[in-house]
Amino acid sequence: MTENQPAVQSEPKADSTGHSRYAALPVALLLFGVLTQAVLLYHATSDDGFAVEENYYAKAVNYDAIMEQRERNADLGWRLNLDHRGERFQAKLTDATGKPLSGARVAITARHNAHASEVQTAVLSEDTAQGRYLTPLNLDRKGIWEIRATVDRGTERFTSTQRLTVGEAR
Known about the structure:
- The protein is of the alpha+beta class.
- The protein is elongated and about 110 Å long.
- The protein has three helices and seven strands; from the N terminus they run H-H-H-E-E-E-E-E-E-E.
- The termini are far apart.
- It has a seven-stranded antiparallel β-sheet with strand order 1-2-5-4-3-6-7.
- A hairpin with a 2-residue loop joins strand 3 and strand 4.
């Protein structure tokens, strides 16, 4: 090549069908993007630590009723002490003076904080006339559990949400 000869730019080489090999690049990039999004979507929806509050919209609309229930809870002054040992779950219900309350229906829902989509429910049976209620409930994961309890006794309703540490929490 001499100084007087112009430089020739080479065109992309075509394959045997006459198409440029660069034509597949946008298709490959689009496929890569779609595949990446599919993998991310799978991981986002299969995580058992993720949970949406059940009936969250209805709870938001009825927030005044929730606040009224909290006021009724405070007026009643009842206390619900929760305990879990092995596969036995226990609740002790007392009134404002500390006197045990018997004859109530105690229902709970339990969820581990790190695995919130796994919910366990139980209705506790009264063990004695001293306000103690029991149920077999296997809280098999160590750590912090959220326990939501509803107590119905006669016409009165008491609700409680508590955190319970099972085993050695990290």
